[in-house]
Each structure stands twice: as structure tokens, then as C-alpha cells.
Amino acid sequence: MYSNETWRVAVEPPVRKVLKRLPKDDHIRIIDAIQSLITDPYAGDLQKLGGTDNSWRRRIGSFRIFFEISQSERRVDIFKIERRGSKTY
Asked: What pTM value is reported for the model?
């Protein structure tokens, strides 16, 4: 469905701050998931967020990666990472 071209992934500064505070094992799993967005942002346990045109949520264990996809620019903007809780969705 999609070409073999890569996508550009941008991580917002607050997300980088969250990543620095995570335990090593969780940090590695999330970084691996972010790197996989470069080849195919539509892979994995993905769900489109309601009320938006291009915002998505990807589940990585007990964490959620929230991002927007710009199809025309082939760009993925990660704007939030949260540990799943009763208020995460």
C-alpha cells in the first residue's frame, strides 16, 4: 500500500523530556517503536483518535505514543507519550 520511502519523524521537546525519565527497558522499547515509524507509521497496534483528521495512538505495552501523520510531507510528529492509566484515553 505504501512505498519504500522513509518518513521523517519529529519528536517534540516535552516528549524527549519524558523519554529521559523512563526506566531503561521502557525507554528502549519506545525508542524501537519510534524508529519503526520511519519505515511505516501505520504498522503496529494503532488507533485513530476521534475528532481529528490525522492524529493516531500507538500502544507499546503500558505506554501510549500519540502522533500526527502528514501524508503530503511524509512526516510523523510525536506530541505526547503517556503511561496508560484510567485517564490516558
From this structure: 0.87
